[in-house]
Amino acid sequence: KNQVEQSPQSLIILEGKNCTLQCNYTVSPFSNLRWYKQDTGRGPVSLTIMTFSENTKSNGRYTATLDADTKQSSLHITASQLSDSASYICVVSAKTGANNLFFGTGTRLTVIP
Amino acid sequence: EAGVTQFPSHSVIEKGQTVTLRCDPISGHDNLYWYRRVMGKEIKFLLHFVKESKQDESGMPNNRFLAERTGGTYSTLKVQPAELEDSGVYFCASSQDSYRVGGYTFGSGTRLTVV
Questions:
Q1: Between A4, A43, A93, which is nearest B109 by CB?
Q2: B73: which DSSP letter?
Q3: Which of A3, A63, A86, B34 lies deepest, with the highest CB count within 10 Å?
Q4: 3-state DSSP call for residue B94?
Q5: Are strands B110-114 and B10-13 parallel, antiparallel or unpaired?
Q6: B41–A105: do the CB atoms touch at under 8 Å?
Q7: B115 Cβ contact partners less than 8 Å away, ≥ 6 residues apart
Q8: Tens-digit pLDDT profile for chain A (113 aa)?
Q9: How many Å lie between the alpha carbon of B32 and the closest alpha carbon of chain A?
Q10: Which 76-95 residues of chain B touch chain A by CB within 8 A?
Q11: Residue A98 contacts B, CB cutoff 8 Å
């Protein structure tokens, strides 16, 4: 069964600190993995997208890693800012199948001053 | 470039009533998708249009849901009659390429509450 699991479910950190969000998946055959940021009341916005051959990808203070062997990904946020408060959703795409996008339930990050 | 626009942003209706959600994709994007997030659960696929044709509607929960995309431009998603379990946030996304290779742009969603 194709599934995407994220942890932790929620996280509170102090402004300026770093944090790492986890994503484990069982989607097969794997095509790519995306991390999205979703602000309250807004739609998800893409942060990174990685294919099978990519181990890491950065977007400013966001760095995503992918281990296709263990089927794990992480999103590391450096020097957090208040504006980083949002839900972060891991989405894994399969190569085949009519509906091939599988979403995690997200990690709710709150950055406090 | 204008993004994906959804209307309304919020809707509160009574059980048994009808609601129509609208999505305006990015101009030129042939692919349009509807998704739904029920509280506490992950976002789930509802259906996919390529231009005006339904490419895949395997995620539609039941026949109370009807999606259209006349002329291949904007799309509507009608729920008739609405039930309590239909409450959630309905997202629309569009892309230029098929979802296997391209990126998506999501709308801000419509929060539907059925009371």
A1: A43
A2: S
A3: B34
A4: strand
A5: parallel
A6: yes
A7: B12, B13, B14, B15, B84
A8: 889 999 999 999 999 999 999 999 999 889 899 999 999 889 999 999 999 889 999 999 999 999 999 999 999 999 999 999 999 999 998 887 656 789 999 999 999 99
A9: 13
A10: 91, 93
A11: yes
Burial A66-87 (b: 16+ CB within 10 A, else e): bebeebebbbebeebeeebbbb
The residue with tokens 């944090």 is: A19
Q: Give the DSSP per-residue string, A58-97.
A: EETTEEEEEETTTTEEEEEE-S--GGG-EEEEEEEEESSS
- Tokens describing residue B113: 């509450």
Instruction: Tell me if B45 and A101 make a contact (CB, 8 A cut-off).
Output: yes
Q: Is A23 in CB contact (< 8 Å) with chain B?
A: no
Q: Which residue of A has its CA nearest to B60?
A: A99
DSSP string, A9-52: SEEEEETT--EEEEEEE--SSEEEEEEEEE-TTS--EEEEEEET
Q: Could you tell me which residues come within 8 angstroms of residue A53 by beta carbon, excluding any fewer than 6 positions away? A: none
**B74–chain A Cβ distance below 8 A for any pair:** no
Q: What does the alpha-carbon distance between residue A84 and residue B34 come to, in Å, rounded to a whole number?
A: 26
Instruction: Output the average pLDDT for chain B.
Output: 91
Dihedral sign of CA atoms B108, A7, A3, B104 in order: positive
